[in-house]
Amino acid sequence: MGALAIVLITSAALVLSLGGIVKAILSRAAMQLGTGVVCGIGLTFMFNFIVWGRRVSRCIL
Predict the structure, then answer these.
(1) pTM of the prediction?
(2) Angle at 51 between CA 44 and CA 43, to 5 degrees
(3) pLDDT in tens, 13-52
């Protein structure tokens, strides 16, 4: 009985620590993905702004 309890406790601790590691990796990946999405949107917006600015300035001039 005691050995079974020790095995259960150690396996639960392993699962919890693995879960924490996986959660940390996932949160870091999510942060990098969010940063990439924000940077991509910003770059696309800047590119469109430059293109439209040239077109508008051509129309005005």
Answers:
(1) 0.49
(2) 15
(3) 988 888 888 898 989 999 999 999 998 999 999 999 999 9
| Token pair in block for residue 25 | 């990796």
Buried/exposed 21-38: b ≥16 CB within 10 Å, e otherwise: eeeeeeeeeeeeeeeeee
Q: DSSP character for 1? A: -
Distance CA 22, CA 14 (A): 12
* Residue that is written with structure tokens 């005005």 in the block: 60
- Would you call 61 helix, strand, or coil by DSSP? coil
CA distance linking residue 14 with residue 11, whole number of Å: 5
